From TrEMBL:
<feature type="domain" description="HTH merR-type">
    <location>
        <begin position="11"/>
        <end position="79"/>
    </location>
</feature>
<dbReference type="Pfam" id="PF09278">
    <property type="entry name" value="MerR-DNA-bind"/>
</dbReference>
<dbReference type="InterPro" id="IPR047057">
    <property type="entry name" value="MerR_fam"/>
</dbReference>
<keyword id="KW-0411">Iron-sulfur</keyword>
<keyword id="KW-0805">Transcription regulation</keyword>
<protein>
    <submittedName>
        <fullName>Redox-sensitive transcriptional activator SoxR</fullName>
    </submittedName>
</protein>
<dbReference type="InterPro" id="IPR010211">
    <property type="entry name" value="Redox-sen_tscrpt-act_SoxR"/>
</dbReference>
<dbReference type="InterPro" id="IPR000551">
    <property type="entry name" value="MerR-type_HTH_dom"/>
</dbReference>
<keyword id="KW-0238">DNA-binding</keyword>
<keyword id="KW-0804">Transcription</keyword>
<keyword id="KW-0479">Metal-binding</keyword>
<dbReference type="InterPro" id="IPR009061">
    <property type="entry name" value="DNA-bd_dom_put_sf"/>
</dbReference>
<keyword id="KW-0408">Iron</keyword>
<keyword id="KW-0001">2Fe-2S</keyword>
<dbReference type="Pfam" id="PF00376">
    <property type="entry name" value="MerR"/>
</dbReference>
<dbReference type="InterPro" id="IPR015358">
    <property type="entry name" value="Tscrpt_reg_MerR_DNA-bd"/>
</dbReference>
Length: 155
């Protein structure tokens, strides 16, 4: 870890971070409220960001492109030090995790696509027989139709 403490010239105003990342100032405010980035304040109350915040914002943008929820970005950021740029090792760990997530999503989309193909030309949209409409129908495989409630005795 570096002993270098940021000087005022190392710190960036929010407009500069917005310009360098292509992210709107309002989005930067939002990321700050979520704890994804942080800023110090000038005596006048203006936000100032360390330069490594640009890298964090870039990682957030990558996550957004891949459909990774911000809550999950917050999880991976929780393991990163706030006072430095994510390293190559950090990024490898994050990207491997998100690759696994994309892979699981790809498999789920393939499964749904396969089920939807069975619907093409059918049109029944039936709780009993359509796996797209009723994908977790565990009772459906025994061929007796839905039975959600236990039988009630007339005794
Ligand atoms: S619409 Fe008939 S199986 Fe899905």
């Amino acid at each position: 870890m570096s002993d270098h403490k940021p000087t005022p010239t190392d710190l960036l105003a929010i407009g500069e971070v917005a310009r360098r990342t292509g992210v709107a100032v309002s989005a930067l405010h939002f990321y700050e409220r979520l704890g994804l980035i942080s800023a110090t304040r000038t005596a006048g109350g203006q936000r100032r960001y360390a330069r490594h915040v640009i890298r964090r914002v870039s990682v957030i943008q990558v996550a957004k492109r891949m459909g990774i929820p911000l809550a999950e970005v917050a999880e991976v950021f929780a393991d990163l030090p706030q006072d430095r740029m994510p390293s190559k090792v950090d990024w490898r760990r994050i990207s491997e995790r998100w690759h696994g997530r994309l892979e699981a999503r790809r498999k789920e989309i393939e499964r749904m696509e396969h089920e939807l193909i069975e619907c093409i030309g059918c049109g029944c949209v039936s709780l009993r027989s359509c796996r797209v409409l009723n994908p977790d129908d565990e009772l459906g495989s025994n061929g007796t139709g839905p039975r959600l409630l236990p039988e009630i005795s007339a005794d």
